[in-house]
Amino acid sequence: AQSVAQPEDQVNVAEGNPLTVKCTYSVSGNPYLFWYVQYPNRGLQFLLKYITGDNLVKGSYGFEAEFNKSQTSFHLKKPSALVSDSALYFCAVRDFNTGFQKLVFGTGTRLLVSP
Amino acid sequence: GAVVSQHPSRVICKSGTSVKIECRSLDFQATTMFWYRQFPKQSLMLMATSNEGSKATYEQGVEKDKFLINHASLTLSTLTVTSAHPEDSSFYICSARARREGNTEAFFGQGTRLTVV
Fold first, then answer.
1. Residue B45 three-state SS
2. Does A4 touch chain B (CB under 8 A)?
3. For residue range A16-37, what is the model confidence (pLDDT) as tens digits?
4. Nearest C-alpha in B relative to A94
5. B104 touches chain A (CB under 8 A)
6. pLDDT in tens, A66-109
């Protein structure tokens, strides 16, 4: 089964410092990977995706993610964190084993950026 | 980006009543819509997938008679929680995938917080 793992429940970083939110995947075949962000009492907002091509994917709000096939990772990064980046982040993989190609989500990582 | 509107954003209902949640794709046609449930501090749990004009496909353990899903058009899907009980209180989120070729991301609604008293 397709799955993603987010090993950290929470990541703390000071404003202005670089941030990394980790995600590893386990899939059969080529992975289609996504990052979403969720603010309190809101739905998920799409940040970026990796389908094919360059391993470094750039997304919304200055975020980027690096696809690493050898390490089966897709870590989310940002060079300089903002307090407003504090939110819940979800990594996801598309499951092609189902007819609807549903998304399978990780458990989420809470990012706290301190002023 | 594409917009998915979910309504209501918050609802409180009495135990035993039914609640309907709407999910609309505002600027695209969605052949597939997904309904999720999210418990506090937990990830999203897929409840069911609906295709326009056909019956929804429910995930294992989700009662289809309790969570009625209707996908009547390419822009609207509804989730009805029937005979709601306090344990149904949760955050419900829908998402929609656009009807076009290629591998498109899913767009999410704002979510609905249901409280059953």
1. strand
2. no
3. 999 999 999 998 888 899 999 9
4. B105
5. no
6. 999 999 999 999 999 999 999 999 999 988 776 667 888 999 99
- Sort B63 into a burial class: Cβ within 10 Å, 0-12 / 13-18 / 19+: exposed
For residues A76 and A8, the answer to whether their CB atoms sit within 8 Å is: no
Q: Which distant-in-sequence residues (6+ apart) come within 8 Å of B53 by Cβ? A: B71
Look up residue B85 and give its amino acid.
Answer: H
In three-state secondary structure terms, A80 is coil
Assess B30–A contact: CB distance below 8 Å, yes or no: no
Asked if the Cβ–Cβ distance from B91 to A41 is below 8 Å, we say yes
Instruction: List b or e across B83-95, with b for residues whose CB sees 16 or more CB atoms inside 10 angstroms.
Output: ebeeebbbbbbbb
